[in-house]
Amino acid sequence: MPKYEAYKDSGVDWLGAIPAHWNSFPLCAKSKLKSISNNENEELLSVYLNKGVIKFDDIDAKRTNATSSDLTKYQLVEPGDFVLNNQQAWRGSVGVSDYRGIVSPAYLILSLSEDIVPRFGNYLFRDGAMVANYLVSSKGVGTIQRNLYWPQLKRALVFLPTTEEQFLIANYLDQKTAQIDDAIAIKEQQISLLKERKQIIIQQAVTRGLDSSVPMKDSGVDWIGKIPEHWEVRRAKYIFEEIDERSKTGVEELLSVSHKTGVTPRSEKNVSMFMAEDYTGSKLCRENDLVINIMWAWMGALGVSDCVGIVSPSYGVFRQKVENTFNPDYLENLLKSVNYVEYYNKVSTGLHSSRLRFYGHMLFAMKMGYPSYKEQNEIMAYLNEQTKKINLALDSQLAQIEKLKEYKITLINSTVTGKIKITPEMAES
Predict the structure, then answer these.
(1) Which domains are assigned to the chain?
(2) β-pairing, 240-242 with 316-320?
């Protein structure tokens, strides 16, 4: 990549050298703080971490932001204004707006000088080097909410090329980032297809077996449909018993049950969750016990535990009456297959989806179609081999996406800080 003919010391350690003809200014010299209210009829806007300023109708904005019923205090944003989420700017929730609209009164809005091309400014102000300025200019307790302090931020230095160069840089980055985003989208689509293929393979194997040539029979259950002729159909009440064993000390491994990961230690969850002071009286589950989160079973929140642990007293714990009726991995995959989860949805009771409950008697009333223990082991050996291949392909796609994202970040940083020179030919190609 081409470089500029001459460089000079920027005077800022983290930036290093900049092109000799670029000039530095305090942010307040090229922007003006503004706050215009009483425009409640304007379109709602929001600032989103990975997208900058977006319309509130965008699904991402609706999902992550709430609005007030009184919009009179919301501030007017005009195209070209620099908008900062006061509490999340330190994470990069900023952007130069393409739209006219209103934003939360908690946001900071800066009207930019004509010396800053808006599209260039959007790349510059969202670059990691500038985000570092928002961090040091923010005050607060903890790592989530930190209020941006304008009297300090306004002294942050911005380094600007000519407006002609800014247009070249913006045009070049528009093209290159669009290409990178397209490549990422293709890989994300490939990931979706791989995940879909994985589910189809699992679904087919646990509900129909591995040999497509075997005779089939009607299971006698509408939602199960046809199964191999030699498979068994039984009600769950003849297979499982409900266990209500309680912890006397509460010191056993605390387990969580979700639709994505099944039964896993709470300590492995990378999320903030409420922790009680004492878990005495929690339900005990043992290795190979089936554990159902009755509140989220309709989403497939269940699994077979591979260890001794404790779960919420409101969860259902079930044990096979006859040992080795089920291979534990086969059982979990069967009960998480599409038809079974749809059954939980159908029979669960509650006023609406967030209050649906799937109780033990509902499980016991359910019929199950399944093969011998030996065939279950064969099915799982096949699935382990197939899912391993697919998981390797998924990991490869995810790694490529991360490299593309890193390249995008590096490319933006290198151009807006003058590490590489963008020529007219590059901007037009």
Answers:
(1) 23-160 (3.90.220.20), 161-209+372-429 (1.10.287), 213-268+278-370 (3.90.220.20)
(2) antiparallel
